[in-house]
């Protein structure tokens, strides 16, 4: 098996959003954007209108049809790569003020007071629109979380914090409404001015008031800008390309194996949670493209106690159709007893039983004739499966050592077979879906 190629990265869970965490250097692998075959796509406005009593209302005949068209399909990944660019709030404000101040009064108004109030109302209106339009554009083009693929929804919740994305979009909408209502109010006051001087004062007041509002609440725009940056940097997964996901307890050697299987260079250290995010890479074998995902380790504990890193790993396994390369470290070097690893393994195996699976016992250069017994290990186990696991891992597990290059050739061969099976599974799934779509 040859021809492995690059690893793409990356996104991390910020340490502030973790419940567990030892601070370690973050790593960055160059981002390469993979375009998914099919992407979330916000539907364009297609509603047709009829004129009823001089106003435009939606044509009832088309309402049902349009409702269907306007509801985005909840299935594909790739929404983050389609997010619009967000301008910093200070740039939006300066550009809006510049444009508004260039607005001149309607031509042909001879009376100075009338001309001034016409100019004032127009400038306030222009400022209001220049600020409201980008806010509305962001609101419309940042996808509603409920229409995202569940994997991307989990990424939003685990990286930004639950509810934060919606909060920021909500603040943006509140700001837009405030700018519009204050703008209208001041434009109307200006239009009612009785003298040139009053119109000038009302104009200055109006502009200042809107500027103050945007200055204060405009930080929501900058928060959105940061959210967009974070989301865009997340690795894109192609659901149609077979993916291998490395899973196991922390520090068992997952990233070391990712390095062997692809040319990516995830950080490797001798302490838990070195990998602090989902890392996507790809392998090219016999002209076939496969994806590799390195994940943070999983601890032996209940779901409610899991940190966001562990939750990320579970999100990958829950929402993405990956094959699993499960890594076991029976040497004692990773810091977790084989018994604890056995408990986690049993839980994961049962929970994700439908995934195509390969077990690997890592660091076999360190394995001794008799298994390592931890203080936490139950020495009087009559659980045959556990006794066996401590000695040689799960049934059929492959022994490998990255350090001494033991079993790596066989590992690559087995990974290739695994991914080919995964590929067949994806094709079968696709044909089933196509059959379902063809009307009988
Ligand atoms: N002796 C030996 N050490 C290994 C081997 N593979 C990995 N290690 C060491 O095990 C430690 C952990 O390796 P990583 O690849 O970072 O493990 P991980 O599972 O990705 O760790 P987390 O990201 O923290 O969950 C490092 O010190 C590696 O050098 C091996 O085959 N033999
Ligand atoms: Mg790692």
From TrEMBL:
It comes from the Eukaryota. GO terms for cellular component: nucleolus. Gene3D superfamilies: 1.20.120.1190, P-loop containing nucleotide triphosphate hydrolases. Transmembrane segments: none annotated. Residues 309-365 form the Nucleolar GTP-binding protein 1 Rossman-fold domain. One of its GO terms (biological process) is ribosomal large subunit biogenesis. Residues 243-301 form the FeoB-type G domain. Keywords: GTP-binding, Nucleotide-binding. The keyword Nucleotide-binding applies. This is OBG-type G domain-containing protein. Residues 80-238 form the NOG1 N-terminal helical domain. It holds the Pfam family FeoB_N. SUPFAM superfamilies: P-loop containing nucleoside triphosphate hydrolases. The keyword Glycoprotein does not apply.
